[in-house]
Structure prediction request, 439 residues.
Amino acid sequence: MTGFSTIYKLSVVAILSLVQVCACDLSCPVIDCWYMLEKGRSGGLANAANQVKSLLFIKTKEEQHDPQSVNTPPDINDVFFITDPSGSMCHRALNPPEGAIKKPNCELNPFQPEPSSLKWVAPLTDSAQSPLYLQAQWLAATIHGVDKEMSVTSVIRHPTQSERNDVILSVTTKTVYVAARLGEPVLLDCSFWVDPSSPLHGAGFSVEWRYQFRGNGRLVLGYDGKTDRLSKIRDEGATLDFEGLHQKGNASLILAEAKVKQSGTYICSVHVPYILAQVTLELEIVEPPSVSIHPSTLPLMVPGQTLTMLCEASGFAPLSLDFSWEFKDSDGKVRSLGPGSVSGHREGHDGTFSQTSRLDLDSAELQSGRGGELSCVAAHPGGTRQANVNLGVIGFSTPSIEDSMAMVGVALVLYGLIKFVSWTFTGSGEEETDQKKKN
Ligand SMILES: *[C@@H]1O[C@H](CO)[C@@H](O)[C@H](O)[C@H]1NC(C)=O
Prediction:
């Protein structure tokens, strides 16, 4: 009876602890975050003294927070209990297992609500009710998850004389880095969420996609959700999923056909009246090379002779390529012949690159009396490609048994052929003379 009750008690404890695990919302993280105090206005550059270490406790419901249970570690200056009903900040990429080396990168900045400066959108700020609501302390948290899995920027409202920190707007991307092949359609993920209980909800939104490369920026596409209008200036082939945008806040940018010159940084900004949040993505067009060897059929090589061969790798991007030449002899043994002399690159009209490697091949280098297969290997981030040609060598030094047999065979066939031909010709010649004699 005692055994039974122990098992009974143990299982009750087990069930209770399970229930507790489920109730404590495991997936929402506690994030180490740099809190950037107001930037010094003189220098422009933020100095280290303006950053302090803080901890963000994220929950999806206000009542899940338990500030009393938190012991602040000594090196932490500030603790924030943040409520994010959207759950955007509870993604697993922001919550690595304890002890993991890779941690999310987080920055918390003071945020100043202000009317949108976008010229092409209908004013979002004509509702009179907003300003009172705006009288609070505002913060913006930008968090990059581990392994470029996602990034999120959340704008947080902290009403004065309260403990609350509520996420009001969050913008998320699940494609922090996108590698696309040339000519493929590209999806740059971006989605946003506005707190439905906020007066800013339903008061209109706009989405702006910008492109940046080496300091130059431009508008890729802008969309005003209030008037359902696209910006006049926009990239050809760039569009949004308008239904998904209005129904689910899916602000993903669709590019019809990836081009090399579209590689760069993209910024997805979402504006609601007075506040905006943005995330940054990286698009890289990665196209592996096409590889060919010239001449494509090689003459038989005589020992002591040097052959010059060219390997052309074309149509690749980005400009990052490693050539290597290899020779595989008839026994399957592979010898490396080095990279050859690599030319400068040429750029094609579609932005892809070409490069050539020249190999001056001395037959002595092959260390093989017989031929084999010569390969040019081009290693590229988009994949390794290679071209092969057969290389025949006439070997005098050490003919193998097969070579000798072949030679004997050839000699026999030749002998037979000569015999046959001479027999045919002499035969017919005799006939002719016979006929002449008869006449
Ligand atoms: C957003 O829209 C794009 C384009 O229609 C779609 O491919 C993608 O799956 C959508 N994302 C979400 C999270 O629904």
